[in-house]
Amino acid sequence: MTTPTLLSVIESAAHPNFTGSYKQLGIAETKLNSMRKALASLKSQPFDYIVAEFFYGYGNNYAGVNISNLDVMLYSLQKYSPDTRVIVLVDKSEYEYVDKLNEIFPIHAVLQYPVSEGDLKQVMSSN
To answer: pTM, whole model, 2 decimals?
Structure first.
């Protein structure tokens, strides 16, 4: 049996450190600090899970075609890792926009800050 893999895309200080929880669950974590690095990694290795923060595109270059910082990654998953379960971390002020992502790729779970280890473990154990 292979060890489940998880990609943590850490783009802000708000992203919680759940490395200990992942180890307890028997999951191998890869940490990357930019979406660009995450996209490059996805092309060479599929992941079982991705945990990433959601940032809505208020009037910036996301707002035209893209909804958020996650759009391009979700489109890439369709090609490179369609079975990946995506867990999105979101601030309460942007929660209303996250549902639009399901139109691109099915989101496994959306967790609103503050996220506890219990919240994460519950989501990781659900299929």
So the answer is: 0.91
